[in-house]
UniProtKB/TrEMBL annotation:
Gene3D superfamilies: Glycosidases (3.20.20.80). The keyword Coiled coil does not apply. This is Myrosinase 1-like. Keywords: Glycoprotein, Glycosidase, Hydrolase, Signal. InterPro entries: GH (IPR017853), GH_1_N_CS (IPR033132), Glyco_hydro_1 (IPR001360). Residues 1-21 form the signal peptide. One of its GO terms (molecular function) is beta-glucosidase activity. Belongs to the glycosyl hydrolase 1 family. It comes from the Eukaryota. GO terms for biological process: carbohydrate metabolic process.
Amino acid sequence: MTVVLLSTFLLFLLTTSRIHSEDLNTKYFPENFLFGVASSAYQIEGAWNESGKGESIWDHFTHKHPERVRDRSNADIACDSYHKIKEDVALLKELGVDFYRFSISWSRLLPTGHVNYINPDGIRYYNELIDELVANGIKPMVTLNHWDLPLNLQKLGGWTNYFLVDIFVDFARVAFENFGDRVPYWITFNSGCDVGYGTDQPPGINQSGIAEYLCVHVTLKAHARVYYLYDKEFRKTQKGQIGMTIDGKWYEPKTDAKEDIEAATRAREFLVGWMMHAIYHKDGGYPQVVKDRIAYRSKHETFPISRLPQFTPEEIDYIKGTYDFLGLNIYTTNLVSDREEDPFDEPSYEKDLRIEVTQDPSWPTSNADWLKVVPQGARNLLNWLKDNYGNPPIIITENGYADKGQLDDTGRMNYYQLYLSAVLDAIHDDKVNVIAYTAWSFLDNFEWLDGYTQKFGLHHIDFDDPDRPRTPKQSAKMYKDIISHRRLTVDLKEEL
Ligand code: GBH
């Protein structure tokens, strides 16, 4: 009895010490606002070559170049989510999320990338996952391609090959036909042309100034084609929505100098507008400053035409407006200053962009160097999107914080509180049309070139245990609380 009383009292103390009501954002998330968590196929599924799955570019790369991954790891097993549908969905149910964002492994569904052979086990696996989600009242939000292109298609040039548009449409049709009756949200791409085609991160094309532009060009066309496929053949019966996910950062001028302000505008247009403009802007096509800069440098580099491919007026019209919502990944903010024009010696995305990027040393950091905690940046970005793209419905498709994986993850709790508070202000004070929020990530997982050294999960996984046991972190409990109350519940700022 005494023990019970004492622990109740202690619990009371613990809870009250965390609440600083004067700081807490007391606004509510709108009634129809949706909360979810996200993952991606290669990062969690494992079973990389089981039951007929084909090889993806990430399977190939991690096996061939283990030294390129920070801890020499790969995602052959990862979270083993392939074998843990029931367990994972039970955790999602416990969190109380409205939806679960995951991606389809293209090479699990179509081992060669092509539709002449559909892997029955791929159909089975995603059917079981989707059925289990639906049975538990969780809406599936499905990304068609989150970086893990079938290796076969990369051998054809990947997203620099225009024929991939047709091949992607075929793949999307298989997904819509088999799963679309239960999927209310589709995301065509999680964008990634800049790293994959401009650097040596897989697929490692590493032809900066050329390959990223081809990749985005083909991706935009592929996105639009799949949008129309859905719109014309599936929307009426399946009643879902479809959009693209853009990798968004906020770019803040480092000083008030005119050059730095212009450099920050250039950064936004090059790094966010480049992917967005064609689909989400009323004029379509590429942003003017992007066209101008690339044309200017191309000319001086003695290219006969700009390295940026051109859309025909018909293509601009075709791609424009192909969305029901904007998917936005937002993690952090960069400071931008102007930089001298580089010599016209070689094509380069960096040189086209002509900026210096830094971060403020006073910004709280995370376990990932690039990821600083700047909630105001997220609010600024949301406002910029609203002002420049006609206030489209925005689904924040990723937002999260890296640490070392401890269960008492105060840093992550703080990050979510601050960013969600910024989102609330953007919704209520700035009237930005944010309709849903997704925490990255559902589970600690394979973080690409960082392997298992960065942990973003709401759930801890013991990667040394073959059973991959999952344990909810403190942040999972907090997120559950926020979801059920539809508002922030605890302010942690002063604790840190
Ligand atoms: C997300 O991209 C991905 O969509 C997701 O799959 C991933 O798990 C998550 O990031 C966390 O990493 O050292 O400066 O070169 C977010 C955008 C782009 C952020 C590449 C990290 C490399 C950092 N990412 N960037 S840097």
